[in-house]
Amino acid sequence: MIVIAGGTVLTVDDADHVYAPGHVVLDGDRITAVGPGSYDPASGRADAEVINATGMVVLPGLIDLHESLTEVENSKERFGRRPTEVAYEAGLLGPRTVAAHCVWLSDTELGMMRETGTQIAHNPSSNAKLGNGIARVPEMLAAGINVGLGHDAAESTNNCDMFEVMKFASLMHRAARVDASLQQAPDVLWMATRNGAAALGHETGQLTAGRKADVTLVDTRNVMFTPLAQGNAEQLYSHLVFAANGSAVDTTIVDGRVLMRGRQLLTLDEQEILRQANAAFQRVLARI
Question: Which residues pair with 80 in a beta bridge?
Fold first, then answer.
């Protein structure tokens, strides 16, 4: 059993509860309790591991989902129809399909996505770097389509930081449409948690009893979260989406297993991974 206590808990549940302070209890690969205030150790096991989350925000693990106008034109030239139209007629769309990017969807294609319940993975930082355009996310959400977030891959974004993806997922739409009301911070965090989990069929994405024990602890005791009014959920959401990056993550728990704590990887040798990655890169360069 793991007890996370003392931090501000963003549940991302149906009621969007925020507990400051709050606690989360994990037993095996499941969340067994979430609530306000401190945790009574007498109600749990004596061998429970306690993680002090004071000064941190506790939230669900971020979910990464994985385009261009040229592809649309190629499809029209080869098949006489746009890509989504081809996929629709072939029976490829549906709730178990995650369609990545979807930058150039027409109104008709948006209707096909909505009709079939197809999930969409929005990859804003990748689309921006590659110059592929800006997906019509406000229209997708207005149509009731489930949209999650993804970074695509390191080679198309230079990093795999989901906090940066959240920032892009809001700012690029506001800038392009000159509308600061779009993609509010809580909505973007839902895209990175609940929406992504729903798209992949994962029992994660929110901190509620019975869900899988995937939890992220973000340290707020740094310049990215300063100033921060204690217990101000609106400000906390804003800092998470617009100010934070992956370096603020202190602890990650997946399936109830602590994989990183105090920014130290517990199951992998980080320096050896970096060494092997650079060596592999040199081997690739030598073959070019």
Answer: none
